[in-house]
Amino acid sequence: MNNLCIDVKNLNKHFGEHHVVKDFSLQVAKGEIYGFLGPNGSGKTTSIRMMCGLITPDSGEGTCLGMDIFTQREKIKKKIGYMTQYFSMWGNLTIRENLLFIARLYSLDQRRDRVERALSELGLTARQHQLAKELSGGWKQRMALAACMLHEPVLLFLDEPTAGVDPKARREFWQMLHQLSDRGISILVSTHYMDEAERCHKVAYLSYGRLLANGTIASIIASQNLITMRTSGAGLTLLESQLQRLPDIEQTVILAISFILHPEMKRS
């Protein structure tokens, strides 16, 4: 039995004269959380949209959910949930009213049952009568995810879903994603947060339209011959400035009171 949710090879996409995705190939297993990393404009979102049948590649081949991404795009769209970074909602409607309205827009059957199920699964039942405009960023993202789940998709595409959300809400959001993954739902998520990348089963790193690395975090680090060191305590800012002047240090990051550095050293 084919356990692949996505299998694409040599996808290319141009926007005008810009070659934004170059020979992109990837396989995603069913129930897998796959993170997409890279600078702005690296081709992350475009690559995911092509894999999900939301836009047509210029060349290449592939399937999503067993369907051809060139000829069966409309069928694929009915099976996926797409959560954009900035979810549009109706502020003067409650959470429940927003979800019911969205269900009506898409002509879903058994709308009330679907909304009840989404409210329960995303921990929104206690707040279902709260106005959307009164919600914090974390609760808005929960509502957005609930809206994506109304038609019971088997594949989710989340475009920087936790941007601007506080750390506690981000952790809770990712706990929900892993619960969905445990049910066999595949999830593609673009992010700039390294701690979120570590929560993914696998990650793909893109730059200038090319896939530079993919796999588990451990396998990527091992393949690049990188050494990661951690330290904590006082004087981290001074230590960072000193380390950044060393030729073999690739990156330094200060996170609260923890300090992470990635020396670009050859192993002996």
What does this structure look like?
InterPro entries: AAA+_ATPase, ABC_transporter-like_ATP-bd, ABC_transporter-like_CS, P-loop_NTPase. One of its GO terms (molecular function) is ATP binding. It comes from Klebsiella pneumoniae. This is Putative ABC-type multidrug transport system ATPase component. Residues 6-233 form the ABC transporter domain. The chain is of the alpha/beta class. The chain has 2 domains: 30-51 and 74-223, 3-Layer(aba) Sandwich (Rossmann fold); 229-263, no CATH class. 31% of the residues lie in helices and 30% in strands. It contains 9 helices and 13 strands. The protein has helices at 44-51, 73-77, 95-105, 111-121, 137-149, 167-182, 194-197, 217-223, 236-244; strands at residues 4-15, 18-29, 33-37, 59-64, 67-68, 80-83, 155-159, 186-190, 202-207, 210-215, 229-232, 249-255, 258-263. The protein has a 6-stranded mixed beta sheet, sandwiched between helices. Helix 3 packs across helix 4 (111-121) and helix 4 crosses helix 5 (137-149). The chain is globular and about 60 Å long. The termini are far apart. The mean pLDDT is 89.
